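C-alpha cells incoming
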C-alpha cells in the first residue's frame, strides 16, 4: 500500500524526534533516521533538506499544537474570570508537556545550547507562549482580580515549576521515585503550580 506524503513526513519526524532524544542531535545521522522511519534517505532531503530542517519541523509542530491548546482555553472561557482562564492555561501547558514528554525534553535540551535555531525559537515561539500568559495576567490586574506585580517574574516562576518534571523526568523518577506521567502526579502539579502563581498574584488573599 502506497503511503501518502503526509504519512511519510510524519514517520520521518517521529523517527527523528525519538533518535534526537535518545542519542542527541549531533550523534544522529540522516541514515539512521531513514532506517528508523523505513524510508529512502533521499526522501529526507526532499521533504526537509537536511537534519537541521527536521529539527526545525519538530519544534514548529510542537509549538503549533501547544498554541492550539492555549487558544482553546481562551475560547471556552464563558465566565470571563482571569483566574479560571489562568488555571485552564496552566493545566493545558502541563498536560501537553506530559503527553509530548519526549519532544518536550528534546526541545528544552536543544534550547540550552547557544545556537541560531535556539534564538529563533525563543524569539518566535517562546515569546508567543509568554504572551498568552502575559495577556491573562495583565487583564486580571486591570480588572482587580490580581494585584499589580512583576508579570515577567511570575511567568518565569510558572515556566520553571511547570516545566521541570518534563525537562528532567529522570530526576523526578530516580531522586523522588515518582512517575511524572501518572495522572495523579499531573493533577497535583497543575494544582500546586496554580497555587504558587496565585500566591504571587494575590498574596493578601492567600494569607487569610
Amino acid at each position: 500500500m502506497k503511503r501518502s506524503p503526509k504519512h511519510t513526513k510524519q514517520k520521518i519526524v517521529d523517527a527523528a524526534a525519538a533518535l534526537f532524544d535518545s542519542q542527541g542531535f549531533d550523534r544522529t545521522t540522516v541514515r539512521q533516521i531513514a532506517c528508523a522511519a523505513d524510508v529512502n534517505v533521499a526522501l529526507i532531503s526532499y521533504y526537509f533538506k537536511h537534519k537541521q530542517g527536521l529539527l526545525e519541523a519538530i519544534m514548529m509542530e510542537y509549538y503549533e499544537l501547544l498554541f492550539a491548546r492555549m487558544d482553546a482555553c481562551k475560547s471556552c472561557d464563558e465566565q470571563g474570570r482571569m483566574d479560571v482562564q489562568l488555571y485552564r492555561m496552566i493545566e493545558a501547558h502541563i498536560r501537553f508537556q506530559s503527553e509530548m514528554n519526549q519532544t518536550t525534553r528534546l526541545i528544552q535540551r536543544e534550547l540550552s545550547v547557544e545556537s541560531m535555531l535556539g534564538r529563533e525559537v525563543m524569539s518566535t515561539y517562546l515569546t508567543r507562549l509568554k504572551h498568552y500568559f502575559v495577556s491573562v495576567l495583565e487583564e486580571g490586574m486591570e480588572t482587580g482580580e490580581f494585584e499589580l506585580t512583576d508579570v515577567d517574574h511570575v511567568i518565569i516562576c510558572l515556566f520553571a515549576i511547570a516545566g521541570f518534571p518534563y525537562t528532567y523526568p529522570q530526576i523526578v523518577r530516580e531522586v523522588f521515585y515518582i512517575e511524572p506521567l501518572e495522572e495523579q502526579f499531573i493533577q497535583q502539579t497543575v494544582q500546586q503550580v496554580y497555587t504558587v502563581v496565585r500566591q504571587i498574584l494575590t498574596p493578601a488573599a492567600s494569607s487569610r
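note: The chain is about 80% helix and 0% strand.
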